[in-house]
Amino acid sequence: MQDVLKLLEQDEWRIIDQSSLGPLFHPLQSFGIDDTLCEVVGTGKSPAVARSWVHHNSVILGIQDVRLPHLKEGLQYLESEGLRYIVRTSGGLAVYLDEGVLNLTLVFPEREKGIDIDSGYEAMYKFVQEMFADLTDEIEAGEIVGSYCPGSYDLSINKKKFAGISQRRVKKGVAVQIYLCVTGSGSKRAEIIRNFYEKSIQQEETKATYPDVKPEVMASLNELLGTNLTINDCMLRFLKVLQKVSKGKFYSSELQGEEITLYEHYYNRVVDRNEKWLP
């Protein structure tokens, strides 16, 4: 537990807030940005970074989803629902993002000792517990069977999932990412992902295991807590916790200087991979 707290107690936290850029902010950009931040933090050119981001009406596929037997039909279904889609370069499976889902990334440098996988997950789990400590003490981590993109660090209240955590490592930088379903209907989002898999599998046998999505096991924070939280409310909570755990400087910033050139490299790489992977 002490190691987890030390991860959050960085000497400096640099804040990059991209939670209100609107529908033109494309998810491909986010994955290019996080890889850029991993490199600059991992190589010591930037302090630890906390980034917030929101994408409208998007489905983020995992690499495993590219192997679905009828992927083309699944993608056509997403298009018919007015959704855009990309494949992220990290693991996991499909997740649904819209203007009611707040995404957070914490980017840490790997020191000489390194950061083990569980410490990264635990740090984000503790961070989220702290964000909503005045509203609930019932946030638990553990796989929620029937959710989309299930994993051992699904976050839930009363066995209903509202968030999922993933990790990405580039050049000795560790990005721990979470999506938080804040507003709207968690089960309606899950229905879209369930339908996507039904159309992409069509009862064929697959080598990989895909989730049998049960919409009733997913919900938003507002549904679970009986609140009217907004993305802005959660941003304030995020910044307050960051200020609390920060040992020193705490400041806002955008990509700058060499980071912009580096971002172009990582963004183009994500675009190229998507062109290669998608039909």
UniProtKB/TrEMBL annotation:
Its EC number is 2.3.1.204. Pfam families: LplA-B_cat. It catalyses: N(6)-octanoyl-L-lysyl-[glycine-cleavage complex H protein] + L-lysyl-[lipoyl-carrier protein] = N(6)-octanoyl-L-lysyl-[lipoyl-carrier protein] + L-lysyl-[glycine-cleavage complex H protein]. One of its GO terms (molecular function) is ligase activity. The active site is at residue 149. The keyword NAD does not apply. PROSITE patterns: BPL_LPL_CATALYTIC. It is an enzyme of class 2 (transferase). The record marks 161 as: Lowers pKa of active site Cys. Residues 44-229 form the BPL/LPL catalytic domain. It comes from the Bacteria. Pathway: Protein modification; protein lipoylation via endogenous pathway; protein N(6)-(lipoyl)lysine from octanoyl-[acyl-carrier-protein]. Keywords: Acyltransferase, Ligase, Transferase. The keyword Nucleotide-binding does not apply. Catalyzes the amidotransfer (transamidation) of the octanoyl moiety from octanoyl-GcvH to the lipoyl domain of the E2 subunit of lipoate-dependent enzymes. Belongs to the octanoyltransferase LipL family. The reaction proceeds via a thioester-linked acyl-enzyme intermediate. This is Octanoyl-[GcvH]:protein N-octanoyltransferase. It comes from Pallidibacillus pasinlerensis. The gene is lipL.
